[in-house]
User: What shape does this take?
Amino acid sequence: MKRILGIGNALVDIMTPIDNDKILEYLSLPKGSMQLVDDERSAKIQKETSRFESTRRSGGSAANTIHGLAMLGAETGFIGSIGRDETGDLFESDMREAGVETMLFRRITETGIAKAFISPDTQRTFATHLGAAVELEADDIKPDFFRNYNILYLEGYLTNDHQLVQKVCSIAKENRMEIALDLASFNVVEANIKIFREIIDNYTDIIFGNEDEATSLTGLAPMEALEEIGKKCRITVIKTGEKGSLIKRGEEIIRIGSLPVNCKDTTGAGDLYASGFLYGYAHGLSLEKCGLLSALLAGRVIETIGARIDKDRWPEIKKEVSAIFRKKD
Assistant: This one.
């Protein structure tokens, strides 16, 4: 089985149910949005919401994907930057407990947090303080990190640091690794379109994106975007929400439907979709089976609150994964 190395923003998710939305108005957080906040505003939000009960767990896009892979039994690693604090300790212990080999840089800056306020109607509003997560630098990256790994999973949020991304991709290719890129968010693609195109043209083997991200990259509708992106890389995946996803390799196009689920929170659906796909791909499964694994994990994570599947649900999920492995092509 191929070993998978992830790199991305190391964050801790703080899930905070609120009894009404007045606190969001008071804190100037538009309901349903994701707002980046600085040190001062983050401290104010923490103070004003300290009366609410919260749960914490490690997070960040690539970290969620790598964690999901590790819980399935894949051999994984993760590169990131955290603070020298209790929150950083939580991130590291969560990842290691799942079986992830961690390559984490400790900074004086506090560990990044993504505070998610859960309204009574289950809608999520995020206030994210990136903190130490964005202090990962090109000089931190060493060739030794990449040895013994076969696939690099890169989150698009890192494209803000062009030098870092260039170095990571260059070392990965020197080590004959395949590179899988998640497009992250349509506004991130728009803001960094040049570096995205450069990475895709020169390095990327597998691309994950949703409809909005694919359109931001190409200016085309999903099916046309699939064809256009497919000219640049070996495998293209476009997630189409409740309709499922489209997967293309060469002339082969697979349509995968979504599972009927009791959706509680869509946070992490894209991250766990990538976990399922890469797990199947690392085992050499067909595109269809990779897509079925993706739909399974994406479906299971939206049945829970937060971007991680609860630990006690993994034994049953592994049985469902085994059934897909046994399914005849």
In short: The mean pLDDT is 92.
